[in-house]
Design brief:
60s Ribosomal Protein L30, Chain: A, two-stranded antiparallel ribbon, about 120 residues, about 0% helix, 6-stranded antiparallel β-sheet, 8 strands
C-alpha cells in the first residue's frame, strides 16, 4: 500500500493456485482466536475479497482442493503461491480506510472516511 500511496483499496478479483495457507475460521471470536485451519496442499483460489488500508488488510479467501472441496475463511499471513496469483486491486481515491479496535468484537474493524482534495 505505501509503495503506491493507496489510502483505500479493495480486491476486485483474484485467481491463482497455492500450496500453503492459513485461515482463521468463522468460529473465532475475541475469547478464542485459535480456530485456525492450516492448509498444506495444492489448491485453487476460487475467490478472494477484502479491503486494504495503510494500517492493515482484511482478506477472506475460498480455496478448492484437488477434489473440488472448498475451504474458506479469514486469510492469515503465510500463503504460498504455487504457479501464479493474479490479484486485481481497485483504488477508491475519494475514501480513506483505516482499522480501529472494536472492543465488542476484539478485532480491528474497518473505518471509512471521505477524502476531499484541497482546491
Amino acid at each position: 500500500m505505501s509503495d503506491h500511496d493507496l489510502k483505500a483499496a479493495c480486491i476486485l478479483s483474484c485467481v491463482g493456485s497455492i500450496t500453503q495457507a492459513k485461515i482463521r475460521l468463522a468460529s473465532a471470536d475475541k475469547d478464542n482466536r485459535d480456530p485456525i485451519l492450516q492448509i498444506d496442499e495444492r489448491c485453487e483460489v476460487v475467490s478472494m475479497s477484502g479491503t486494504l488500508s495503510p494500517d492493515g488488510i482484511h482478506v477472506h479467501v475460498s480455496l478448492a482442493d484437488g477434489n473440488g472441496l472448498v475451504k474458506g475463511g479469514h486469510l492469515m499471513a503465510g500463503m504460498r503461491v504455487f504457479t501464479t496469483m493474479e490479484v486485481v486491486v481497485g483504488e477508491l481515491s475519494q475514501l480513506r480506510f483505516n482499522r480501529e479496535m472494536d472492543e465488542a468484537t476484539g478485532f480491528t474493524e474497518l473505518a471509512v472516511s471521505i477524502h476531499t482534495r484541497a482546491v
